[in-house]
Amino acid sequence: MTTDQVTDLKAKGNAAFSSGQFAEAITHFSSAISLDPSNHVLYSNRSAAYASMKDFDKALEDADKCISLKADWPKGYSRRAAAYVGLGRIPDARSAYEEGLRIDPGNAVMQKGLHDLDTQATGGMDMASMLSNIFKGGNVMAKIGADRRLAPYLLQADYRDIMEKIQANPELMKSYMGDERIMRTFLVLMGLDVSQYPGEGGSHEDSPMPDVSREPPKPEAKPVPKAEPEPEPLDPTSAKVAELKAKGTVHYKKKEFDEAIRFYEEAWEASGEKEITLLTNKAAVLFEMGKFEEVVQVCQEAVDKGRELRADFKIIAKAFGRMGKGYEKLGQLDEAMKRYSTSLTEHRTADILDRLKTLERQIEEQKKKEYLDPAKGEEAREKGNDLFKKADFAGAVKQYSEAVKRNPDDVKAYSNRAACYTKLGAIPEAIKDCNTCITLDPSFVKPYLRKAQCHMLTKEYNKAVDTLTEAKKYDTEGKHTYEIDQAMINANMAMSSALGDDKSREEVVKKAMQDPEIQAIIADPAMQSILQSMETDPRAAASHMRDPKVAANLRKLVNAGIVRMGP
Q: Does the N-terminal or the C-terminal CB of the chain have fewer CB atoms within 10 Å?
């Protein structure tokens, strides 16, 4: 026998039962019983399946077997009672419930079952009240004597004695439900038909005196509600384990780690090494103590044991998560990432997902740092320069990219790659490299010129002018004065030409209106007010131009062809 097989068959049986496939459930439970015939839970669940198929004899047989295997387990008595109800043996069902309640007085299921028997027999009336109404009063004996079926019982001294006791305390009726004479008396006094009993019906003269020693007959079986076989844990946590675990947690919160570990280990042994959460708790303590190698070892043990016992996937996920934290602290980031990924496949949690993403970024940054080598970066840049001269722009991009990886602060590599991208028509990539260059070294003029060239190619002449103006500011030594001035002349001429032609102007304005910076200027309420005042009074422009910020915004709008100034 293997525990895994039994657990698997039991799970299949429970699933079949839940979906109403009772015959299939019985097959699975029976297979499990053949592997583990001493498992009382399996007999309990199969009893419920038989009861659902209205095979109450077999349901009772399994319930009896369950009780014989574990007499102190209250659910066995609940199963027995359900089978008795199905067989119509109400007094026996009552006895089964009462016996189970003696073991577990607070069992809500059996309390309800016993109460249902009372309400079923009384049509919903409280049992105590109903019994009081029937047996109280001095005319009870007279009613018995007047009934041809009950009168013979009055000749029996023990019957009269029982009836006197019940009259004095109607609650005692429950204790005598197994006596056929008392049961018949009860039914007659309630005014119910008792013709189903032997000796009733036919001619009055042939009615023999009831045989009080005979076992009560089995009336027609009544339908009973389906009894759900509640899954039972194979190894329920004992009170001792729970107590030790709680003590360990108290010491953990107090940061008394040695004591916490001692209690968790004692609880682990007391559980028969089956309560996996005790191992993950121990790992948490070891983590706080900085014993990360032991954290990994204990969590691996939790995973292995959990797999063996088919533990909840959430517990397995927690063990993998804590193992990942241990590896992370040990600096073994690749191993940590593997454990976090496995944890998420078992059970997805926000905490482990965040850790995995953070760790991926860390690993990426670490790889980038390990790859840094400025000397090799310069070597790659020189190779790129040679390829650029040969017009192998794609090959040059590859070398410049290698140079950037080796030395992310090399502005010349970004600037040269931007030139390659421009030649290849990859304008957005070229502008991105220019911006990176400018961020790293704002005084480096070359990227401004390359960026202005990109804006010229996209006919964003206003942006080209702005970029060249910025370049002129940083060309303090005048090394690029001629180049900047020529580019500025070209940009202004292109802009004038475009603005002079209605069709070209419309295209320029349309493109400019897509620029977020232009959109922000136009949407500014202050600028809207200024533009309106200039429209009604052109002379107002001179006063507004004294404000540097307003003047810069107006120049942008003029260069974009949106605003015209002058005669």
A: C
DSSP letters for 418-458: HHHHHHTT-HHHHHHHHHHHHHH-TT--HHHHHHHHHHHHT
Residue 189 is encoded by which pair of tokens? 């006094």
Q: Residue type at 417?
A: R
pTM (predicted TM-score): 0.43
**Spatial separation of the C-alpha atoms in residues 442 and 447, rounded to whole Å:** 9
Query: And the tokens for 425?
Result: 């028509």
Answer yes or no: are the C-beta atoms of 444 and 413 closer than 8 Å.
Answer: no
Q: What is the mean pLDDT of each run of 10 residues along the chain (567 residues)?
A: 77 80 90 90 92 90 93 91 87 89 84 75 52 64 75 80 81 73 75 45 33 41 46 52 88 92 91 89 94 94 90 91 94 92 90 91 88 94 95 94 94 95 93 95 94 91 89 90 90 74 62 77 83 76 77 76 61
393: tokens are 């722009």
CA proximity to 93, closest of 71, 111, 112, 114: 114
- What separation in angstroms does the CA of 249 have from each of 267, 281, 297, 303? 11, 8, 21, 21
